[in-house]
Specification:
The chain is built from ten helices and seven strands. It is of the alpha/beta class and 280 residues long. The longest helix has 26 residues. The chain binds NADP nicotinamide-adenine-dinucleotide phosphate (NAP).
Length: 280
């Protein structure tokens, strides 16, 4: 697909990967709608892009349905309409399930899974009328490999992966293409110092965000739609995990002490439900 002259709605535009995608797409001649919550950084990003006047910024919180609705209204009023929807905004939480904060869990599922599904469903009638259109969902390798400390994040990305696959099949006889891109660890603000320390301790590679943006662009330009995991050997591990999950269990059991050392785990292991029952 040639994105020259196309209009792209990019969520999480001011983040590490989002900004690199914005640079690549602007250079290739697309007009962008840049969204995020931080107005200043969105404005700065717009000014730094090729042909800045061609692009728009829109501030919205995608964890709120009002934010999703206001973004829809804004895009519906654009004369050119949207050709590509890039669901890139996301958050992570490196915590064992026993230490998960329910509010953070809800916020994470809302942003990583509910928002992309809602945006896709809302834009689809419009995308289906375009000569060429695409939905691009940014997932994670943890959507294919259940990784300790990332159970909830992985569940959100795994959901996004299945959603993308089914959507691609639903749209196979239409002009709308679907791409699911799953980066491995990438050097952006999303990763806390604890995640970085764990990756260093385990020797896990961390890609520059430019690499992810280039991979996305390459897929769009060559028309290689489908699922892509960025990085080797992660792509191989994901394939092995899908056919021999017990082998992955054994590998990750060896890594568990190191992962636990860096992750958020409960300070004191206690059975909260049991404790409450005792108190009644
Ligand atoms: N970094 C990694 O290691 C890695 C690995 C695999 C996959 N990914 C995926 O890549 C995507 C981009 O992540 P990144 O690494 O670029 O992270 P990042 O630098 O932290 O960027 C996250 C983006 O999401 C936006 N965002 C966060 N909360 C939002 C909300 N409530 N409403 C609207 N926008 C919100 C942020 O903008 P505001 O703060 O202005 O709202 C920011 O633009 C995510 O989907 C992530 O899961 C990342």
């Amino acid at each position: 697909m040639n994105i020259k002259g196309k209009t792209v709605l990019l969520t999480g535009a001011n983040g590490g990967i989002g900004a690199c995608v914005a640079y690549e797409m602007a250079r290739a001649g697309a007009a962008l709608v840049l969204t995020g919550r931080d107005e200043n950084s969105l404005r700065q990003l717009r000014q730094s892009l090729h042909a800045a006047d061609r692009h728009h910024t829109f501030v919205c919180d995608l964890q709120q349905s009002s934010g999703v609705n206001s973004l829809l209204e804004f895009c519906s009023a654009l004369p050119a309409g949207i050709d590509l929807l890039v669901n890139n905004a996301g958050m992570s939480d490196f915590a064992f399930v026993s230490a998960a904060d329910p509010d953070v869990t809800r916020a994470l599922i809302e942003l990583n899974l509910t928002a992309p599904i809602t945006l896709t469903a809302a834009f689809l009638p419009h995308l289906l009328q375009r000569q060429e259109a695409a939905v691009i969902n940014v997932g994670s390798v943890f959507g294919s490999i259940g990784y300790p400390g990332f159970a909830i994040y992985g569940a959100s990305k795994s959901g996004l992966k299945t959603f993308s696959q089914a959507l691609r099949r639903e749209l196979a006889d239409s002009t709308v293409r679907v791409l699911y891109v799953a980066p491995r660890a990438t050097r952006t603000a999303m990763n806390s110092s604890r995640v970085i320390a764990m990756n260093q301790a385990l020797g896990n590679a961390m890609d520059p965000p430019e690499k992810v943006a280039k991979a996305i662009m390459q897929r769009i330009q060559t028309g290689h739609w489908g699922d892509i995991i960025i990085g080797w050997p992660e792509r191989l591990f994901a394939a092995i995990n899908s056919i021999l999950p017990r082998l992955t269990d054994a590998v990750l059991l060896r890594q568990l002490p190191r992962i636990r050392q860096h992750s958020r785990v409960p300070a004191v292991q206690s059975n909260t439900l049991f404790d409450k029952r005792e108190a009644i």
